[in-house]
Amino acid sequence: MTGDARFPVHVVTGFLGSGKTTLLRAVLGSEAFGDTAVLVNEFGEVGLDHLLLGEIAEDTVLLDSGCVCCTIRGELSEALRRLHSRRTRGEIPPFRRIVLETTGLAEPAPIASTIAADPVLRHHVRPGTTVAVVDCTNAVTTHWREPIWAEQVAAADRVLLSKTDLATEDEIQATRDTVTGINPGAELLGAEALTRPPERLFDAGPHLRLASGAELTDWLGPAAARDGHATHARGAGIAGIESFALDMEEPVDWTAFAVWLSMLLGQHGERILRVKGVLRIEGADWPLAIHGVQHTVYPPVHLQAFDDWQGESRLIFITRGLSHDVIARSLRTFVAHIADPPGLR
Ligand SMILES: Nc1nc2c(ncn2[C@@H]2O[C@H](COP(=O)(O)OP(=O)(O)OP(=O)(O)O)[C@@H](O)[C@H]2O)c(=O)[nH]1
Fold it and tell me: With CB atoms counted within 10 Å of each terminal CB, which end of the chain scores lower, N or C?
């Protein structure tokens, strides 16, 4: 455990018709998900009706697996607050996690900033795992046409490939290549993932527990293995998306780094689809894992399993129209003003 008592808000995202509700149906039918509250957007096709047991409040229903299901009316922060206060008053079962299904046209990034920006909510809930559902029958064409598709994939910790029963082998392979080209660190899941217990489906994201070097390497993804080299998403000419690693040989001054990162995300957030990494901090016993999506940077996590870690600091970026060189120059310039540059590559 992270020692964090707040409820995770996991997100199921994916383009229109990709199979988000199908995923939710499959997992929420399982008893293991009984202590889950589900929020669905009222504009989405909910399609959970066959699971409904009864209405327990105006917009809340109890599924026969024991899950609570609410539609979002109005703002997400309001819906989350209401769900939390109903739980506190004992009006609904004491759920332990929230799963939010976004509409097919939503960007997942603002969800994290909604939670971080709400002074009440952020004491009770925390961002959890983002799972993007990708339809293999049309992934490549949708990727070219719809920028939101790539944003959903870039924000994901895990990508569930749907409709593999309908897609050809070539379509499935092209989907894998496109997804990996955009987000090399995301774990690709097949239909077998639907039988995973909730702790295994929703156990990635900013609060993940990394216990070994191998897990750290997996989390950082293949871009981490290619020093400073960019990988370009297929069709990068259109989507303009690339992922790359930025390395720092020397320990990092955390205060200076944190100021730089918030400035970078503040200025270029909409072009930084994702940043994550591990930092060796001056004077600290453990490295820090950092994680950001667009304008939001999550509180860093001390990786306590890595006592006396001597590895290099490494950041992985997924950007749109923002190159490795621009980001490296920005860090170098900023850090040079306040400290010795940390051996940046
Ligand atoms: N054959 C097949 N059909 C699927 C699969 N996943 C989803 N579908 C079908 O695709 C259609 C859309 O699936 P939904 O789960 O409603 O998709 P969604 O992402 O929730 O859709 P929106 O909420 O409208 O964005 C439905 O008819 C599903 O039955 C799959 O893996 N195989």
Answer: N
Name the residue at shortest CA distance from atom 5 of ligand 1. Answer: 163
Residue nearest to atom 12 of ligand 1 (CA): 17
User: CA-to-CA distance for 274 and 252, rounded, in angstroms?
Assistant: 20
Structural domain that includes position 269: 213-338
Residue to mutate, 21, 24, 25, ligand 1, most ligand atoms under 8 Å from C-beta = 21
pLDDT in tens, 160-213: 999 999 999 999 999 999 998 888 888 899 888 877 776 678 877 655 667 677
Q: Same domain for 197 and 218?
A: no
Q: How many domains does the chain have?
A: 2
Distance from residue 24's CA to the centre of ligand 1 (Å): 11
Which of 235, 329, 313 has its CA nearest to residue 275?
313
CATH at residue 176: 3.40.50.300
Q: Report the candidate in 205, 151, 154, 211 with the shortest Cα–Cα distance to residue 180.
A: 154
CA–CA gap between residue 283 and residue 286 (Å, rounded): 9
Mark whether 239 and 148 lie in a shared domain: no
Q: Is 132 in the pocket of ligand 1 (CB under 6 A)?
A: no
**Do 300 and 193 lie in a common domain?**
no
Does 208 fall in a domain?
A: no
Mutate to test the pocket of ligand 1, among 22, 69, 99, 131 (most ligand atoms within 8 A of CB): 22
Average pLDDT in the chain: 77
Query: Identity (one letter) of the amino acid at 4?
Result: D
Q: Is 16 in the pocket of ligand 1 (CB under 6 A)?
A: yes
pLDDT, one tens digit per residue, over 236-282 is 444 677 788 888 888 888 888 888 998 898 888 788 888 888 898 88
